[in-house]
Amino acid sequence: xxxxxxxxxxxxxxxxxxxxxxxxxxxxxxxxxxxxxxxxxxxxxxxxxxxxxxxxxxxxxxxxxxxxxxxxxxxxxxxxxxxxxxxxxxxxxxxxxxxxxxxxxxxxxxxxxxxxxxxxxxxxxxxxxxxxxxxxxxxxxxxxxxxxxxxxxxxxxxxxxxxxxxxxxxxxxxxxxxxxxxxxxxxxxxxxxxxxxxxxxxxxxxxxxxxxxxxxxxxxxxxxxxxxxxxxxxxxxxxxxxxxxxxxxxxxxxxxxxxxxxxxxxxxxxxxxxxxxxxxxxxxxxxxxxxxxxxxxxxxxxxxxxxxxxxxxxxxxxxxxxxxxxxxxxxxxxxxxx
Length: 338
Known about the structure:
Blueprint (H helix, E strand, L loop, with lengths): L2 H28 L5 H28 L7 H23 L2 H21 L2 H4 L12 H29 L4 E3 L14 E3 L16 E3 L5 E3 L10 E2 L3 H40 L7 H21 L6 H24 L11
Antiparallel strand pairs: 1-2, 2-5, 3-4
Helix pairs in contact: 1-2, 1-4, 2-3, 3-4, 3-6, 3-7, 4-6, 6-7, 6-9, 7-8, 8-9
């Protein structure tokens, strides 16, 4: 079997394995008593990771350069990064819900690359002069791994919002603790607390004509507290903690990647920064997650507010990685679709 045929087999195998893995995780969530399903899902994710790695290595041998120079290659590299970050996050959390939210996106990326991209975008082509540099491996690989870590962290933040039903959750304890129950409670906001009407001790109101009227004291409205089940509380705590750790891993990586890209740009085009659409959105992505970490570390934000910020970052990462490359004109574009 030649390398081209092997690549065609490996990309379809990657999709099939990740699709089966997604079903295993979803069935594990639907049937929590089936303890074997999450273990099979973990094995499937590891097999998918190895299959994608074999595809990229075969591509490297065939093309003779680091396989991250076009959309097809970078999509599989991103999927490899997501499966790797999933294995890290799952080991830290030991929750089957991690795979239920990460396996679909890894499967969707491989499906898009293997089944949707036209043949001319899947084939390996000679590198343009600007890409013939050792910075290709340094810059692109670090950026893709950072995207993978940020996407996994953002997905877990979205899962946190779903588990807590979008309620305001008060977390007691350190953001970087070991996880577990930390006295979480959910409160329904915007419910006014009424102040009882003033009256004398006997509850009587003196009228102008000398008579008295007995009034009933209105019931005092208290802020309603909605308690989640202990299992849901523990899961929410774990998701918040692991999401924070994944974003904390991805942020320094994207910082290094942006700096490496600036150095490479100066070497290739004579300018560290040219406000190319890709560069602009990379900066926006960096600012969004910098705000997330700043809010958690210095402002003490926990729970719903940073999760909403991370969910916003999920969309921003996709615009930065894929949107400007496909729909925009610039130095990093894969093609103009209009």
